[in-house]
Specification:
- The chain is α/β, with parallel strands linked by helices.
- The structure holds 1,3,4-trihydroxy-5-OXO-cyclohexanecarboxylic acid.
- 1,3,4-trihydroxy-5-OXO-cyclohexanecarboxylic acid (DQA) binds next to loops.
Length: 150
């Protein structure tokens, strides 16, 4: 079955600092390195893949809204700290109705208790947490095979 032709990868606040940020939780890969690997895999599969990072909740909401206009078929999102706070981003994802996977580099269930609460998980197709940068690659493999609307 044909998977989505257009996939969007969204990263929230402070993920631009990957590579230099708390490597015991987030590893040593930069966001650029992660995105480069994702782009290579998408090219192999002849799928359009876009990556977006912002530290601003308003911009992230705007990018999610724009995804519907663009016909994005699947979203991979690490909302970062907004995971635990953003009703606005949750509502945007619910509004556009694009299936998404929630990714966290760290195991959010093995850290401070506030990180166990997510505004996204119950409306996500699924969640990958604690597998480091590999989590994005695994989410992409899943997305590539995600069945489109019948
Ligand atoms: C994170 C986990 C969040 O709790 C944290 O605020 C982040 C990154 C992760 O990828 O493990 O910024 O989403």
């Amino acid at each position: 079955m044909a998977g989505p032709r257009h996939i969007l990868v969204i990263n929230g606040p402070n993920l631009n600092l990957l590579g230099t940020r708390e490597s015991r939780f987030y590893g040593k890969d930069t966001l650029k390195a992660i995105n480069t690997r994702l782009a290579k895999r998408a090219r192999e599969k002849r799928v359009r893949l876009e990556t977006y990072q912002s530290n601003s909740e308003a911009e992230l909401v705007g990018r999610i809204q724009q995804a519907r206009e663009e016909g994005v078929g699947f979203i991979i999102i690490n909302p970062a700290a907004y995971t635990h706070t953003s009703v606005a981003m949750r509502d945007a994802l619910a509004a556009v109705g694009i299936p998404f996977v929630e990714v966290h580099l760290s195991n959010v269930f093995a850290r401070e208790s506030f990180r166990r609460e997510s505004y996204f998980t119950d409306i996500a197709v699924g969640i990958v947490s604690g597998l480091g940068a590999r989590g994005y690659e695994l989410a992409l493999e899943f997305a590539l095979q995600y069945p489109g609307k019948k």
